[in-house]
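re the bet — no i am not wrong, look at it urself. input seq straight from the record:
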Amino acid sequence: MLFFGKIITLLVAETNRYYHDCLDSTNEQHHPHRDVTEAKMFVFLALTLQMGHKIQGRLEDYWTKLEQLCCAFYRQTMARSRFYHVLRFLHFTGNNWTVDSHDRLWKIRDLFEILRTNFAKFYNPSKHLVVDEVIVKFKGRVIFKQYNPKKRKRFGIKMYKLCDSSGYSYDLVKTDRGWHNT
């Protein structure tokens, strides 16, 4: 909770804001959902992490009742429609904020600032530090994604990490080429 308390609060506030903005801007009549709470956001993130351990072909397969694919854990934890609702409106920053044209990660800037502050506040690194470059696997669309055919993770975002001997990343630093994890 030291690291993620403020992040959950940010996710809840921005997700609910984006949902209400979409409700206000559309003329469609649809069933309004309740606002996302911090407890529901924790459940959503836990289910998302759990999906990495039990990989299904499609997202809706996690809630299926077919015996060969069934995992009751997902249905008992959160309804599929609620999960889809949170996933659809998940936001980190308001869309109408003024944006620095050179800041390519403006959508997640607040998240990085919270992490950066907490990394420095709650941990003192040892004397044994190392700088390493890593490629974080990413298949989405961003302008700064890199392709390296010689690596196992061929597509990803290159970052530089400053870690101590335990592997802890100490700080997030912005350089002229974008964000690097240092």
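see?? The first strand starts at residue 129 and ends at 137. told u. also The chain has two domains: 5-89, 125-181. so pay up
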